[in-house]
Amino acid sequence: MDRRQVLAGAAAGLAVGAAGCVDSFTSLDGVSYGREPALVADRPDAIYYPTHTEEMATGGMAMTDDGLAVSVSYTFPHRFWRVFNRDGGYEAEQFGVESDDAVHIMANIWDAETGVVLPVSSVDIAARGGNNVDERETVYAMLSQRMGFHYGDNYHLDGDDTYTVDITIGATTARRFGDFDGRFGDPQTVTIDLDYSEATRNELTYETYEDRQGEPGALDPMSMEMDGMSMPTGRVRELDGTALGTGLADDIRYAAAVLTADRFGDAPYLAVTAATRYNELVIPSMGLAGTLTDSDGEAVVDSASLEPALDPELGFHYGTPVPDATGEETATVDVTTPPQVARHEGYETAFFETPTVELS
């Protein structure tokens, strides 16, 4: 696991309640690292209620020259899962809390005007301060039931101090439409001065869910605000144009439409959204292919690759031009690569089946 040396800001916490609290940290020296309950023994191959949630402390916020809002928050260090391709199959591998982890850092990035999250960039965090901390690392794109899409990782701290943090958002890899065309194409860096207090971290609370943990379902996303601005969790948006239907498979909810607005070009545009079954949070980093079949059973387009895209109205989605589409076709979606995004507890066992989904 890549080591991270970084800071965290101490400010007002985003409370999630203290019922069923787990003991908080007492010291970085000799502490029993991590305060998480044991995982549910028989987790379903689906989205499920996690064992607990953690209070978060908000850190700081800044704006890029390109109109992106960037916020930083933190909580206790905790386990998460990354996806790997091994022996021809995909699986989630748990990354636990290590002895020098002090916090889990989370960065939210979104377009300030439209609230569209940016799930298609690399994000680096460089921290300077403390006892000669001066390090840059790349954090992981993540899905959380409470935070939705964000970037994060566990980090080492070096005591209480004010740290200078440079957050660099890499150029987006997604196709962009409308007012997003020509934006987000260059790396953007913001600097946030953040105070970290071990005492503030120690006061963060847990809430456990003994009565629901391991059952199919999901917690509601939290309402988050910083500096008077609401932070979006990345809920999927409704598609304009001619709807082709919806479908549900492997706890992913799909919707598709054919759009002919000028911003999508001369050809009709096939747009597909992929979201979590519960709360409809965007799922990035998938490989998707779409097929449109006319009333005679002939393929108007067969297994066309659907590329990640950003649009001020549609938000994040997958799409491709289809010159002969009319919106009267039957649509199917194939998962060519399961979501590569890292997962918080409750998502790590889902999204690994790859059925063909016919929308209706």
TrEMBL record:
Record InterPro entries: DUF7350 (IPR055774), Tp34-type_sf (IPR038482)
Phylogenetic classification of the source organism: Archaea, Methanobacteriati, Methanobacteriota, Stenosarchaea group, Halobacteria
Organism (species): Halonotius roseus
Protein name as annotated: Tat pathway signal protein
Residues covered by the DUF7350 domain: 238-359
